[in-house]
Design brief:
heterodimer, A: about 300 residues, alpha/beta, Rossmann fold, six-stranded mixed β-sheet, B: about 625 residues, Elongation Factor Tu (Ef-tu), domain 3
Chain lengths: ~300, ~625
């Protein structure tokens, strides 16, 4: 027997691992749900879920936590994509906070995230009585995420305790829970940003057009390119200008910067990554609003 | 490089998972930071943040360790408290690092990181030498059967790049590791801080002839680490989307499954054939580890999660009673007869620890009687499960030989376990995998005299000194002189020589690969009996196949097995030709002659390596004796 016959590429190893994780969760939990953020990682997760349960349909719902500050193009993409693949989509919001006009300009990003993202998420999980929630976080994204387990245990309040995580051995995941406890599951933990793009390219996975470069109305504020949305508050003598740019990651428009770019296809984007010397989350304002900010958000229940 | 080239490269590169272990301040995080930064795998904004944080924390230079010490608590204390995963790639390979801390209280983290690793880097601080911690790390690497181990002797810059210091540490650590089962072992002297031998070869250590660490990581052969022989397909999930489709989802744990294969479902033992192997991307002809696929069977068989599909002629064990080495990972102490949940492949079963055979001290490998295990303690247990599980010994199959223990009350993961190949017998080596006797009615009789009693009166630890090498390499010459020397020192010993054994015990065996294997097995059994009687055994056999020598090591027990590679170039052996055999082999009069018409597989990591074209017999003998004394095998 020749070993070449049994060689397997890095991406296929990652794919197999993710599929294994998803099947474990569906087999072991009563009410799993997949958090769907409309971003590229979510698109890859959905494809992996399709693969894991083929020829069956995805046996869980996709849950989108809508802050109301998402780009309109994202919402449009979400609805079309979910309809096309026949996914069961649930959209949840923190209506109470939105009724009180929660927004990042008045509250600051920390409080805004706590209410519209973390708060809405915890509310949605409780409402749906979900015991496991898939998330598309990757360990290469951010330092505290580098320490996440694949099965991340959360107490009855959705909190993460980094010093008291369950040891995770081989591929034997411990998903046992007591009342109200939950598990966040990260099937693409071991993927890198390049892996995601490469996979999107190979698999021809649909993504939101905001990832591709186009002339867009932007505010140029220091080094950041800030998109102009309905409620964006301009500083004195700021005038939006047309800039050829794209988004490396997609969050809420007030808190997601764009990068100057001419990449209009997935290979173009990968080409850009080859020379890119900054990490992808540099355009995410929420990661930098306080020291150890992601760690803090995660402890409180954020992804 | 353009995009297509990058994608091609990314697509063709394989994946190496490795773990790092070292004591506090051995420089693990610095090493990882160095690998990332010198191989240009750090983004600029991360590097800037690093420079900023280094200043904030009053570090004199940019502290590469801050790259991996991600949590606030760690940064404040300057330690790593949990396993962190890092990703980087070079043109040849993709890497996942499990960075695990070396504190006493965090043994469990190293075990966690080691469980998925193909390779472990064990760091030793050149100034401190081999510490208790280093021994523990080596022991865990062998316990978890990590296929490749690299010992990086770090901070060489602080010991003037001294070859002597490096060699002393290497010899000391080798003597310790010789008692363990480490399939592939390499030493590299480095300075993570200065970058010597990490990515780039060191100018300060020209005496080191090997490759830098990163190059080693890029080149080490890992495709052979997978088991492609024994088909094991644990069923994770039964997929029944409609009445026409019933598929069994799972990841191929080992072996290769093909369409049309005759298979058996365990534990029901129902047989069927593979009708199809389904994936989203189309049907496959065959599947192999670690692919995740869906199998459909020809017949309607009752199959559920936790069952296993195997080949009819190659079956794992199915049993209630299992023995395992376990690492306890929780503050709640292990108790005998307390119920636990055991997770194994895709099944959860309840069971109790029926017996704790011993607690093993990972610092010196001593075994102690104990009535329980505490956090970070390692012991050997017998489990009584309320339902049978389908398993293989861990040394043969990591995927089907590993278990975790879960507390039914708190749901905490309490322990990691490695199943041992044995049914209910006691007191043998933990990774010893001797095959079962042909009849199950054969039971070992326990002697009233323990091996400790014999050791005490003989004032030596019985070992087998196994010499391997080509015909004419000098094995018999050195073996005879060694025997004479040991007798002069008053040490009871006995030489088993190849030709002599073939005149009697093994007269029915020829020189085919099978017969050579049987030859070695019998010799190993005899050596084991002599060892049991307290004697030191010297063997002198070509023993050309690695697998056979590994088998001998298993029989003799690995901590009693000292492998010596008697090495001489084949031209020199042929020149010496003491028995005129090479001439006969060349003329075709002898077939299957090692080195001429049959292969010789040299040991990858012998305990002692003697090159006889440059070493005198007396020097060689003295070296061996010194090693025996240093390892405490004989007391001078």
């Amino acid at each position: 027997m020749k070993t070449e016959e049994y060689s397997i590429t890095n991406l296929k190893v990652l794919e197999a691992e993710s599929i294994h994780i998803m099947r474990e969760v569906v087999a072991e939990f009563e009410r799993p749900v997949m958090l769907y953020s409309i971003g590229k990682d979510s698109s890859v997760m959905v494809r992996l879920a399709q693969k894991a349960f083929y020829p069956g349909k995805i046996p869980f719902s996709l849950l989108h936590v809508d802050t109301s500050y998402k780009f309109p193009l994202m919402t449009k993409f979400r609805d079309e994509f979910c309809t096309e693949i026949g996914a069961d989509l649930i959209v949840e919001q923190n209506k109470e906070a939105l009724a009180k006009n929660a927004n990042p300009w008045d509250l600051g990003t920390i409080k805004c995230c706590a209410q519209l993202k973390t708060g809405a998420l915890l509310g949605a999980l409780e409402k749906g009585n979900y015991d496991a929630a898939f998330g598309g976080a990757r360990r290469d994204e951010e330092k505290s995420r580098a320490k996440e387990r694949i099965y991340s245990f959360r107490d009855a309040h959705g909190q993460w305790d980094p010093k008291n995580q369950r040891p995770e051995l081989w591929n034997l995941y411990n998903g046992r829970l007591n009342q109200d406890e939950t598990i966040r599951v990260f099937p693409i933990s071991n993927w890198t940003e390049l892996d995601i793009w490469h996979y999107i390219h190979l698999e021809n996975i649909p993504i939101v057009p905001l990832y591709f470069a186009k002339e867009r109305e932007m505010i140029v504020r220091k080094d950041q390119l800030i998109p102009v949305g309905d409620k964006t508050q301009l500083q004195p003598d700021e005038v939006p200008e047309k800039v050829m740019c794209r988004f490396r990651t997609l969050g809420c428009y007030p808190c997601t910067g764009a990068v100057r770019s001419t990449a209009t296809s997935v290979p173009d984007i990968i080409q850009e990554m080859m020379v890119e010397r900054n990490s992808e989350r540099i355009t995410r304002i929420i990661d930098h609003d306080q020291e150890g900010s992601m760690e803090q958000k995660k402890k409180e229940g954020y992804f | 490089m353009n995009v297509d080239e990058l994608l091609k490269q990314n697509q063709e590169s394989d994946l190496l998972r490795f773990t790092t272990a070292g004591s506090v301040d051995d420089g693990k995080s610095t090493l990882i930071g160095r690998m990332l930064s010198d191989s240009k795998n750090i983004y600029e904004d991360h590097l800037e943040a690093l420079t900023r944080d280094s200043k904030k924390l009053n570090r004199e230079e940019v502290d590469l360790a801050l790259l991996t010490d991600g949590l606030k608590a760690e940064r404040e204390q300057g330690i790593t408290i949990d396993v962190a995963y890092r990703y980087f790639s070079t043109p040849k390979r993709r890497f996942i690092i499990a960075d695990t801390p070396g504190h006493v209280q965090y043994t469990r983290n190293m075990v966690t990181g080691a469980s998925t690793a193909n390779l472990a880097i064990i760091l030793i601080d050149a100034r401190n030498g081999v510490l208790t911690q280093s021994k523990r790390h080596g022991f865990i690497a062998s316990l978890l059967q990590i296929p490749h181990v690299v010992v990086a002797i770090n901070k060489m810059d602080l010991v003037d790049y001294s070859e002597e210091i490096y060699e002393n540490i290497r010899a000391e650590y080798n003597a310790f590791l010789a008692k363990l089962n480490i399939p592939d072992l390499t030493y590299i002297p480095i300075s993570a801080l200065c970058g010597d031998n990490v990515v780039n070869k060191s100018d300060a250590m020209t005496w080191y002839k090997g490759v830098p660490l990163l190059q080693y990581l890029e080149d080490v052969e890992i495709s052979g680490d997978r088991n492609l022989i024994d088909l094991r397909f644990p069923i994770q999930y039964v997929n029944r989307p409609n009445l026409d489709f019933r598929g069994y989802c799972g990841t191929v744990a080992s072996g290769v499954v093909r369409c049309g294969d005759k298979v058996m479902v365990l534990p029901s033992k129902k047989t069927s054939r593979i009708k199809s192997i389904d994936t989203f991307d189309g049907k496959l002809e065959y599947a192999f580890p670690p692919q995740s696929v869906t199998l459909c069977l020809e017949d309607e068989v009752d199959v559920s999660r936790g069952d296993m599909i195997v080949h009819v002629g190659n079956q794992p064990r199915v049993d209630h009673n299992v023995e395992a080495m376990i690492v306890w990972m929780n503050e709640i102490k292990m108790e005998i007869n307390k119920p636990y949940i055991i997770k194994h492949t895709a099944s959860d079963v309840r069971g109790v620890v029926a017996k704790l055979h011993y607690h093993i001290d990972s610092d010196n490998l001593h075994r102690n009687q104990a009535d329980g295990l505490e956090l970070n303690e390692i012991g050997r247990i017998s489990l009584e499960l309320f339902k049978p599980i389908i398993f293989d010994p861990y040394v043969k199959n990591r995927a089907t030989g590993s278990i975790i223990l879960i507390d039914p009350m708190t749901n905490a993961t309490l322990a990691a376990g490695m199943i041992i190949d044995r049914r209910g017998t006691t007191e043998k080596e933990l990774t010893n995998s001797r095959s079962e006797p042909a009849s199950s009615n054969i039971v070992r009789e326990e002697s009233l005299v323990s091996s400790n009693d014999r050791q005490r009166i003989m004032r030596q630890k019985p070992v087998t000194i196994w010499m391997t090498g080509l015909s004419g390499s000098g094995k018999s010459t050195i073996a005879k002189s060694l025997e004479k020397k040991l007798i002069e020192l008053g040490r009871p010993c006995y030489l088993l020589d190849g030709d002599n054994v073939r005149h009697g015990l093994n007269r029915d065996l020829g020189f085919s690969a099978e017969d050579r294997g049987e030859n070695i097995r019998r010799i190993a059994e005899v050596a084991q009996l002599f060892n049991d009687a307290g004697m030191i055994v010297i063997t002198s056999f070509i023993s050309p196949y690695r697998e056979d020598r590994a088998g001998a090591k298993d029989i003799i027990e690995e901590n009693k097995f000292i492998e010596i590679f008697i090495d001489a170039p084949i031209e020199i052996c042929e020149n010496r030709d003491p028995k005129g055999l090479y001439v006969k082999a060349r003329s075709g009069e002898i077939t299957s002659f090692t080195g001429i018409s049959a292969p010789y597989e040299p040991p990858k990591t012998p305990d002692i390596h003697i090159e006889t074209n440059t070493t005198d017999v007396s020097v060689a003998v003295d070296r061996i004796v010194k090693q025996l004394v240093d390892a405490g095998i004989i007391i001078k």
